[in-house]
């Protein structure tokens, strides 16, 4: 935190003048010094806590309890040290698109291929995918140098139908966007913003055209959603695109998703501008648009999103063969039409582009509530930690909103003496017809082009890990390549954050499980990356990859101190003891600094509190299941899976989400754990308060506060942060309340544990 000061750009020594296309800024020297001094004082407090645990064992507690507290505090302290790498020397990038335009006119710009992945039309609605695709087709970029590919891993006829409708509507929409320079260029987002007068763009005739193009969009949306709800494609579409839909004739739709040939259709051929006839926008030159459903067979593992991405890389090499690739999730629409030009400032800078393999942009969301009830915005990661990674060689690849060099993804090794990208090696095939291109590109998405080849090992995204993006980025960086992070003032992409607690917990379970698998794999940042990447970057990879083991220390601190509080046995120094100061300072400093970071990143105080609650829930549930599943898989007792996060919610759920009411509503083993721990802490707090009240002359209150003040504060904080859960258990009557079965299980379990501990232990 502090003001940014630009690095001094050294004048070029070559005769040819050099104009940088992007700049790198850092915090002021004073700000960095203060931050490092503060971190040093916190570390001193942590070391004092460790020293206390080693030298002051409590004879009234069992040794394993004291040792458990020691190991938990060792973990918390060492993990905190890892997180400081992301705060040591953050850098902030800014671009000069005007300089790019002056040095590289549109006709000399490289091609860009955009990959969008979807996997299930019931969870990722086709109209959502259509909005993402249309926002990309409408980019402010030469159409003959832009191609958009949709990978439909669900092989859904409804997704194909939606794409055919999108291709038909694209002329009207892109024409409207270009004439009035509108932002954003997702129709749904733009019309919603226009209704609230928050959209950008306008001018003569804007209102009339807005009404007309919105009517076309609503009609298209109605056709797509009606087809999806009715479960059949309209007859006129079947007749018009008989060959396209012939793949689905007479097939069992469920088994078809796992057993079908490659389906490939070039919906818009953007290689050359069409003749100007002025009819319904058809004279507009549009980018290439391609639909792909790669071949799947039950006997072959399809490798989830990594397999889909690799198929797109191969197919696109035949159709458009752009040197720059952008991949996005299907709900992540473009919010800024100039993003491609921003990205090219990094890849086309003459002096600083030779070692840049990929450029990562932050994932932002347009449906996050004001106080971000589920902590979905990941503000501190995007605004603090990733800029910190950038100073050590670049951030990790996080699967969406990332620009890649095609040659690097295809396995090119880094050469310090010459790794610049030669644009002249790439170009489109202008000789073959669309039918010929489809025929020649289709085999590249077949299983034979992937199975038992270098794809997934030496080429493309890595196979065998739920977070294929992270392990792929790490392997690229270990070859010597760098990545960069760019957080533009206007969000480049906006997606959909989870709108229920189960969605949030399942999503983080998948992320943390995949990250922990990387630690235990041969690509572990602990040993494989040693000497290949900087120590700071290695520390931050470990910080994320060790999310899952966090559950052990957090579970210990969430349960044991509260039970011993109920028993009347202290685990921390007395309030009157000087040893309480390291505990108080380390905790207070850590959380006050966390709050300051969150506020400086654009969050609110209540949003920070909500994030602390989500932090607790993730570490006691998501990470616990991820840790156990990873260990079982390592022992050969389980398999990796891939869970898609739902992108839509019903009206009741959406209404509660907008009101920032936590959504439980379903029975889940995760909720059993959450509710049981919450009840255990509530019973412990009630029990100790009851003991104080029945004690004579207030002696009990003074004794408890002095001897177990820190335990009392910890238990009280856990009860306070679980208030929404208690509301869901005891007070709420809506469908989002805690299920009765979970409530009964939690109450009985917590009561049995507390009673047994007090009377039998």
From TrEMBL:
Catalytic center residues: 153, 469
Bilayer topology term: Multi-pass membrane protein
GO-annotated biological processes: cell wall organization; cellulose biosynthetic process
Annotated positions binding Mn(2+): 305, 329
Localization terms from the record: Endomembrane system
Keywords from the named record: Cell wall biogenesis/degradation, Glycosyltransferase, Membrane, Transferase, Transmembrane, Transmembrane helix
One of the Pfam families matching this protein, by short name: Cellulose_synt
A single MF term (Gene Ontology): cellulose synthase (UDP-forming) activity
Parts of the chain that traverse the membrane: 33-52, 64-82, 541-559, 579-609, 671-690, 710-730, 742-760
Highest taxon listed in the record's lineage: Eukaryota
Record flagged with keyword Transmembrane: yes
GO cellular component, one term: endomembrane system
Residues engaged in binding UDP-alpha-D-glucose: 124, 153
PANTHER family in UniProt: X-BOX TRANSCRIPTION FACTOR-RELATED
Protein name: Cellulose synthase-like protein E1
């Amino acid at each position: 935190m502090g003001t940014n000061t630009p690095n001094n750009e050294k004048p070029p020594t070559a005769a040819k003048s050099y104009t940088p296309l992007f700049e790198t800024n850092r915090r002021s020297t004073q700000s960095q010094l203060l931050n490092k001094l503060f971190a040093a004082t916190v570390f001193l407090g942590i070391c004092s806590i460790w020293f206390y645990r080693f030298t002051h064992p409590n004879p009234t507690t069992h040794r394993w309890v004291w040792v458990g507290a020691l190991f938990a505090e060792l973990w918390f302290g060492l993990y905190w040290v890892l997180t400081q790498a992301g705060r040591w020397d953050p850098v902030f990038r800014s671009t000069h698109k005007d300089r790019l335009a002056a040095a590289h006119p549109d006709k000399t710009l490289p091609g860009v291929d955009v990959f969008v992945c979807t996997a299930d039309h019931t969870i990722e609605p086709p109209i959502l995918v259509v909005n993402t695709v249309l926002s990309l087709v409408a980019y402010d970029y030469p159409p003959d140098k832009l191609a958009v590919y949709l990978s439909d891993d669900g092989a859904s006829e409804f997704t194909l139908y939606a794409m055919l409708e999108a291709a038909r509507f694209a002329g009207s929409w892109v024409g409207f966007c270009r004439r009035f320079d509108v932002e954003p260029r997702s129709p749904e987002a733009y019309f919603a913003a226009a209704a609230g007068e928050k959209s950008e763009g306008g001018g003569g005739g804007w209102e009339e055209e807005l009404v007309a193009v919105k009517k076309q969009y609503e009609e298209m949306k109605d056709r797509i959603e009606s087809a999806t709800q009715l479960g059949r494609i309209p007859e006129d579409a079947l007749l018009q695109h008989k060959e396209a839909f012939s793949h689905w004739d007479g097939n069992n739709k469920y088994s078809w998703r796992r057993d079908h040939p490659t389906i490939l259709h070039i919906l818009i051929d953007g290689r050359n501008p069409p003749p100007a006839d002025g009819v319904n926008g058809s004279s507009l030159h549009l980018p290439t648009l391609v639909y792909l459903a790669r071949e799947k067979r039950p006997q072959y593992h399809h490798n989830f999103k990594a397999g889909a991405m690799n198929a797109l890389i191969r197919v696109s090499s035949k159709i458009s063969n752009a040197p720059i690739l952008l991949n996005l999730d299907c709900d992540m629409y473009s919010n800024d039409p100039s993003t491609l030009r921003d990205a090219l400032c990094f890849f086309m800078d003459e002096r600083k582009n030779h070692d840049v393999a990929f450029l990562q942009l932050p994932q932002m969301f347009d449906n996050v509530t004001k106080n971000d009830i589920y902590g979905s915005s990941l503000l501190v990661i995007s605004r603090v930690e990733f800029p910190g990674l950038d100073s050590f060689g670049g951030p990790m690849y996080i699967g969406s909103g990332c620009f890649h060099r095609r040659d690097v993804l295809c396995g090119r090794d880094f050469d310090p003496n010459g790794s610049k990208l030669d644009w002249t090696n790439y170009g489109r095939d202008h000789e073959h017809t669309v039918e010929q291109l489809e025929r020649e590109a289709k085999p590249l998405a077949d299983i034979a082009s992937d199975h038992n080849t270098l794809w997934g090992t030496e080429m493309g995204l890595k196979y065998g890990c739920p977070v294929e993006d992270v392990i792929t980025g790490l392997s690229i960086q270990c070859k010597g390549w760098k990545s960069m992070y760019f957080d533009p003032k206007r969000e480049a992409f906006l997606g959909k954050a989870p709108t229920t607690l189960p969605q949030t917990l399942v999503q983080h379970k998948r992320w943390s499980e995949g990250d922990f698998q990387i630690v235990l794999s041969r690509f572990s940042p602990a040993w494989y990356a040693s000497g290949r990447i900087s120590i700071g970057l290695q520390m931050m990879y470990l910080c994320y990859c060790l999310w899952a083991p966090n559950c052990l220390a957090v579970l210990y601190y969430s349960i044991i101190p509260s039970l011993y509080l109920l028993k009347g046995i202290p685990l921390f120094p007395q309030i009157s003891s000087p040893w309480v100061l390291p505990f108080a300072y380390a905790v207070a400093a850590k959380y006050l600094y966390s709050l300051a970071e969150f506020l400086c990143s654009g969050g609110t105080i209540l949003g920070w509190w909500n994030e602390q609650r989500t932090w607790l829930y993730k570490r006691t549930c998501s990470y616990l299941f991820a840790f156990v599943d990873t260990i079982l898989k390592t022992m050969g007792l389980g398999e990796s899976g891939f869970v898609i996060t739902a992108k839509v919610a019903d009206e009741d759920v959406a209404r509660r989400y907008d009101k920032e009411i936590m959504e439980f509503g379903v029975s889940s083993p995760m909720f059993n754990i959450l509710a049981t721990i919450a009840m255990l802490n509530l019973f412990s707090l009630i029990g100790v308060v009851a003991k104080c009240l029945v004690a004579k002359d207030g002696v009990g209150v003074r004794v408890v506060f002095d001897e177990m003040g820190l335990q009392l504060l910890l238990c009280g904080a856990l009860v306070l942060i679980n208030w929404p859960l208690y509301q869901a258990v005891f007070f709420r009557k809506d469908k989002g309340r805690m299920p009765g079965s979970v409530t009964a299980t939690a109450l009985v379990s917590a009561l049995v544990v507390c009673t047994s501990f007090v009377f039998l232990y």
